[in-house]
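User: Here's a protein and a ligand (2-phosphoglycolic acid). What would the complex look like?
Assistant: Let me lay out the input and then the predicted complex.
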Amino acid sequence: MSRRQLVVGNWKMHGSRPANALLLDGVLQARPFHCDVAVCVPFPFLSETAVTLSGSDVRWGAQDCSAHDQGAYTGEVSAAMLHEFGCRYVIVGHSERRALHGEADALVADKAKAALARGLTPIVCVGETLAQREAGETEAVVKRQLAAVVQTVAHCAGEMVVAYEPVWAIGTGLTATPEQAQAVHALLRGQLRAAVADRADDMKILYGGSVKPDNAATLFAQPDIDGGLIGGAALKAADFVAICRATRQP
Ligand code: PGA
């Protein structure tokens, strides 16, 4: 498989200026990587992260953006603002935002569209809850979540990154088996192929949910898994670096 893999750290609401400096230094010292590497940091840290990482091949991004371009939306941050700070990526539709902030498929789709309009790559998260998996609804849920975005962004769909993150695996220490993850990734790629034809073969579909140094390599060896979206293990340089090194050689 020729797709270059991508590992993205999702710091969530963690970090401090001294801790970030230490973490980013550890990542920079470990270069070069044979995969693409990025960190998605809390908004207030973007400026400093941009200064630290600019000139390196490690990219940065945010964890959410507004669906609106500008206006009276207190507390929101637009894709244009993220672009000004050199962001390459923005996570949209993370399950924590869907569950804790009531984000529905249509809003996630509008956020992905806003990101693409400003030249950012949205990392669109999809994934089922444990109850949905046990009810045999995994396929229907992830297809519905992805379809909403694909319909809204239309011909730009080929420019997104997709992340399959089973909700029951996030922060729990439970990981989908490589086979379980691969089955969903293959399904998602098939859905993308229906939308953007052969471009789907170049798109990255990341796996997320308790990826650790000791399980990363077997996940990343699956044909339709193109890297990872890493939460907890992205907060320690040694773990994050080990996960980056567990990617396939291109
Ligand atoms: P985790 O989080 O690696 O801590 O499970 C992944 C994510 O939520 O993106």
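Summary: The chain has a mean pLDDT of 97.
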